[in-house]
Amino acid sequence: MSYLTSLQTKTKLPDGPQTPGIILVIQSLIDSFGLLEKNQEKYGDIFYVPESSMFPSCVIFSDPKAIEKVFTADPSVFDIGADPSAPVRALLGDNSLPVIEGVRHQKQRKLLMPPFHGKRIANYSQTMIEITNEVISQWKVGQTIHIHDYTTEIALRIILRTVFGLDEGEKYDHLREILLDWLEIFTSPWKSMFLFVPALQKDLGSWTPWAKFVRQRQIILEILQTEIDRRRENPDTLGEDILSLLLTASDESGEQMNDDEIRDELLTILYAGHESTASTLAWTFYWLHSLPAVGAKLKTELDSLDKNADLITINKLPYLNAVISETLRMNPVEAIVGRQLKEPFELMGYEFAPGTSLFPSIYLTHQREDLYPEPKKFKPERFLERQFSRYEFIPFGGGHRRCLGDAFAVFEMKLILATILSQVELELLDRRPPKSVRRGLTFTASGGIRMAVKSKKITG
Fold first, then answer.
1. Which of 310, 333, 367, 373 could form a disulfide with 276 if both were Cys (CB 3.0 to 4.6 A apart)?
2. Average pLDDT over residues 441-454
3. What percentage of the chain reaches a pLDDT higher than 70?
4. Structural domain count of the chain
5. How confident is the model at residue 11, as a pLDDT?
6. pLDDT at 251
7. Following DSSP, what letter does each residue of 184-223 receive, concatenated?
8. Residue 179's CATH number
9. Are the CB atoms for 353 and 341 separated by under 8 Å?
10. Which range of residues forms the domain containing residue 440?
């Protein structure tokens, strides 16, 4: 009998589903949020999933005090874990910040932090506005659009320009096309299964999704390496873009990130930096246009701005911030965040053995009636009436593994939203509420949210 089995046998554990691992994976791929709610309703604020051939034992919970205990615990208590991080490793590589740990994680996080905070973000603001205007200038009055397609286009262009300093041109177009094609591989729950079931990760020919994914990922890495080599050989080409900053960043001892680390981090930024932003913005447009009173209130706030209002003023608009926050609460791009135990850990009266994965649930926490009365209703006002703690509102995770680009993403979403709403009037065509569906590692609105362009203040 293993140590884990021995300890868990002697210790009372929370109740939880006894469903076979492969069935749980399928259920989670089809309807993760629904499955979480079903289990919480049946088992309570904490439930335990036994070890299976698919994954190690795990515990899922939404109590803010338990989340605080996990997020504030000594990082040495946890391991990122091979099994919980497998989908991320498969997509983004072994050197990506979400899958490394210990001293290496602390060092790399510190080197990556400057481009995503403070004045650096403001330096990218004009680029964000210019790209948004470039994209919406193509819209025609009367045109039907899927707003998610365009929030994706805007967010991807911003990432390409801020990360690589790449503007329109052959190199830009090539990388953009390859990235879009790569990201389309796992757009459905069934295709996403390849990320979560290692047995499916086999190259059985160019027609299989996994083979196509591996080949395209390699092409992207080769493009990134070529650009890294070009910058290293020509230091005069270094600029204010994130790649340039990573190539010159060093720790206290003067040590820099190696090429493998930089490539995997660039891939992570490319994926996470636009996918979550695009999905959140698409949901925001849905809520603003399905609830006209909310849309009108935000429009009034934006119209009240002075013509020469600076970006700091826009960033501090209270209702704009509340709308973004409520969207992140209602429609998080991730369902859970994970830690795997290295040593025994007590939580909510239970003792969990090493090897157990702890999963604070973003979705379930945001749906708590005691925190968010009428949680199924979109009510931005709740963020004006109360300040939620970092353990009650967790769209970007928390603790020493909180998403590094959170401030960048929120600032970007505010500028894009304000730019579009101030110049274009849209009409929601999808009256049936969309569902959150899996798209690779994240969740987005089903159907892409169909809208019509009613009027514009700009030509095009």
1. 333
2. 93
3. 94
4. 1
5. 63
6. 79
7. GGG-SHHHHHHHH-GGG-----TTSHHHHHHHHHHHHHHH
8. 1.10.630.10
9. yes
10. 3-456
